Amino acid sequence: MPTDAQHVRPATRQRADEAEALRAEADAAAEVATLEIVLVREALTVELQQVRAEADEAAAAAAELLATVLTKIEQARAEAATARGELGVLQSQAAAECSGGRGCDDPLRTVLEMLCEITIVPTSHGHGSRWVRFNPEGRIKVRWLRAACL
Questions:
Q1: How far apart are CA 53 and CA 58, in angstroms?
Q2: Structural domain boundaries of the chain?
Q3: Torsion over CA of 60, 62, 63 and 66, rounded to 10 degrees?
Q4: Where, if anywhere, are coiled coils annotated (predicted)?
Q5: 94 near 110, Cβ under 8 Å?
Q6: d(Cα 117, Cα 102) in Å, to the nearest integer?
């Protein structure tokens, strides 16, 4: 009959073999997981670089658009200053004419009367609206001026 020591050895050996097989299986799974992590990290790095490039392009486009908008704002400010200057000249002329004995109760009406004296040319498409020439560089479309000048 086998002794207890003989029975323990094969069972211990079997458990040790099972443990070694499980350890080898765990090592293989860990290696696969490590490789998967490296692949995912590389894919995310490539995607992050693409996102950064797209963000840089979008920022450059936004900066260009902002520069264009700021330029337009400056142009509009310059045009507004010019228009204010022209209006100031008209108001000064109106005030001078009013003080010259021309009886002016309404300064706006006086400015309109002065505008009516400026050259009015018909539009090329002939829809009845008119252009008032304030300066050689441009024309201002004024639909209500015709009624004001009548």
A1: 9
A2: 4-88
A3: 160
A4: 41-93
A5: yes
A6: 15
